[in-house]
C-alpha cells in the first residue's frame, strides 16, 4: 500500500537563463523593505553581487551586506550575521552563492525568529517557528540548499559539522539562473557537480526513497552525468550550465524529501576536521560507500549505471552495480577530482574519531545498509 508523504518544496522557484530578472517583479509584489544580503567576499569582488544589487535597487529594497561567510560556514558566521540583521532591523534575508551562504542564511533566519544558539537546533525539526523570510539565489550547480530543508554549520570548537534538518528553514523563493554560474572555476564546477550527483544517487538508494523521489533522482543523474564534464571544460557553455542547474535543483528536491546516506555522514567529518570542500569529500567517498552498499541495493545501482549511460541490458544486478561504481569513478576522474583522501592531507590517525561521529550523523539512518564504526574506518581506509 502506498504511504502518505509530506513533500517540502519552496513556495516559488525561478529557474533558467534570466531568472534573476524575474525576481524583480516578485519583489515588487512583496511587503519586504530591508534585506540582510548574505554572501561571500568572492562574489562581491567578481561583481556577481552587483547584478543582484541592481535588481534590489530597482525594486526599492534597502540592503545590508554580510559577506563574511566562510566556505564551510561557522557558528561565528551565523552569530555575526544575526547581530547585523538585528542592528539594522532587516525584515527578510537574501542569500547569494553556493551552499555556504545559503546554509548560513537559513541558520540566521531560524535564530531570528526562534532565538537561542544554532547548536540548539542540531538534529531534526527542533525549531518552533518558521524562519524569517528568505530569498535564496544560487550560483553553483551543487548543494541545492536553496530548495531543501537542510543546512550545515561547522562548530569549530568541536570540529563537527552540525547537520540540521528543519522544515521551518525552507526558503520563500529559490532562484537558479545559470547565467550567474557562467565562468565559475573548473575545480568549483567539478566539486559542486559531484556533490549534486551524490545527492541524486544517495536519495535514490536511501531507505526513505519512494516513487516521486526516485523519478527526480534518476532524472538528476541523467542530467548531471551528461553535462558535468562539458560544464567543467567550458565554463561559459550556457547549455551545460542550464542542464546542471536543473540537475542539482531536482536532486535537491529528491534528497530533501527522501534523505541521504553514509557518504554525507563521512564527508561531514572530513569538513569538520580538515575544512575540506564538501563536494570534493563527497566525490572521493561516493564510489567506496556505494560499493559497501551493493548487497542492499544492487538492483537500484544497476539503474544508476543505466542513467549514467552504461548499457546494462545483459548485466546481472551485481554486474550493473559494479558498472555504476566504475561510471562514477570515470566521471570523477574526468572532471579532476583527487584520487583519494591521502591527496587531501587526511591522516589515518583521525579515522576512529571521525567514524564514531559519522555513525551519529543524521544522514546515517537513511543509508540502505546498516553501518558500524568498524565499517566506517574500513571505508575511510579504502578511500585513501
Describe what this molecule looks like in 3D:
β7 (150-155) and β8 form a beta hairpin. The chain has a six-stranded parallel sheet with strand order 1-9-6-4-2-3, with helices on both faces. Strands 5-8-7 form a three-stranded mixed sheet. It has helices spanning 19-28, 41-45, 48-58, 75-87, 99-114, 186-205, 211-233, 238-258, 262-274, 278-307, 317-334, 351-360, 373-382, and strands spanning 12-15, 34-38, 62-66, 92-97, 123-124, 134-138, 150-155, 160-165, 173-176. The mean pLDDT is 96. It is of the alpha/beta class and 384 residues long. α9 (262-274) runs antiparallel to α10 (278-307).
Distinct helical segment count: 13
Distance between the termini: 43 Å
The biggest beta sheet, please? 6 strands, parallel
Share in helix: 40-55%
Radius of gyration: 20 Å
Would you identify the CATH architecture of the largest domain? Up-down Bundle
Strand order in the largest sheet: 1-9-6-4-2-3
Number of domains: 2
**What structural category arises from helix and sheet content?**
alpha/beta
Which fold name is given in CATH as the topology of the largest domain?
A: Dehydroquinate synthase-like, alpha domain
Total number of beta strands: 9
Query: Averaged pLDDT, please?
Result: 96
Residue windows where pLDDT falls under 50 for at least 5 positions: none
Order of helices and strands: EHEHHEHEHEEEEEHHHHHHHH
CATH class group of the largest domain? Mainly Alpha
Amino acid at each position: 500500500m502506498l504511504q502518505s508523504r509530506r513533500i517540502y518544496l519552496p513556495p516559488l522557484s525561478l529557474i533558467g537563463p534570466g531568472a534573476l530578472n524575474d525576481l524583480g517583479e516578485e519583489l515588487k509584489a512583496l511587503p519586504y523593505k530591508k534585506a540582510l544580503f548574505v554572501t561571500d567576499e568572492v562574489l562581491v569582488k567578481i561583481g556577481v553581487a552587483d547584478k543582484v544589487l541592481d535588481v534590489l535597487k530597482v525594486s526599492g529594497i534597502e540592503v545590508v551586506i554580510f559577506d563574511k561567510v566562510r566556505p564551510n560556514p561557522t557558528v561565528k558566521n551565523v552569530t555575526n550575521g544575526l547581530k547585523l540583521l538585528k542592528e539594522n532591523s532587516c525584515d527578510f534575508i537574501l542569500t547569494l552563492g553556493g551552499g555556504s551562504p545559503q546554509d548560513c542564511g537559513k541558520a540566521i533566519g531560524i535564530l531570528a525568529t526562534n532565538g537561542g544558539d544554532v547548536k540548539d537546533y542540531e538534529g531534526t525539526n527542533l525549531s518552533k517557528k518558521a524562519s524569517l523570510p528568505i530569498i535564496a539565489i544560487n550560483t553553483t550547480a551543487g548543494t541545492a540548499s536553496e530548495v531543501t530543508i537542510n543546512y550545515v554549520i561547522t562548530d569549530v570548537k568541536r570540529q563537527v559539522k552540525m547537520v540540521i534538518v528543519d522544515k521551518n528553514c525552507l526558503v520563500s523563493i529559490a532562484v537558479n539562473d545559470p547565467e550567474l554560474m557562467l565562468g565559475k572555476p573548473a575545480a568549483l564546477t567539478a566539486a559542486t557537480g559531484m556533490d549534486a550527483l551524490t545527492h541524486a544517487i544517495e536519495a535514490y538508494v536511501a531507505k526513505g526513497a519512494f516513487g516521486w523521489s526516485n523519478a527526480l533522482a534518476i532524472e538528476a543523474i541523467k542530467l548531471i552525468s551528461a553535462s558535468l564534464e562539458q560544464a567543467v571544460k567550458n565554463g561559459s557553455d550556457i547549455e551545460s550550465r542550464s542542464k546542471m542547474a536543473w540537475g542539482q535543483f531536482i536532486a535537491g528536491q529528491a534528497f530533501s524529501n527522501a534523505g541521504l546516506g553514509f557518504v554525507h555522514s563521512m564527508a561531514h567529518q572530513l569538513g569538520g576536521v580538515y575544512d575540506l570542500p564538501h563536494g570534493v569529500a563527497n566525490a572521493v567517498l561516493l564510489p567506496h560507500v556505494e560499493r559497501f552498499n551493493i548487497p542492499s541495493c544492487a538492483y537500484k545501482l544497476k539503474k544508476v549505471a543505466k542513467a549514467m549511460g552504461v548499457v546494462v541490458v545483459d548485466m546481472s544486478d551485481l554486474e550493473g552495480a559494479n558498472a555504476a561504481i566504475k561510471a562514477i569513478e570515470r566521471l570523477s576522474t574526468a572532471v579532476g577530482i583527487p584520487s583519494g583522501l591521502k591527496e587531501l592531507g587526511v591522516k589515518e590517525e583521525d579515522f576512529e574519531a571521525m567514524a564514531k561521529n559519522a555513525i551519529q550523523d543524521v544522514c546515517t539512518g537513511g543509508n540502505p545498509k546498516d553501518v558500524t564504526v568498524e565499517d566506517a574506518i574500513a571505508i575511510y581506509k579504502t578511500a585513501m
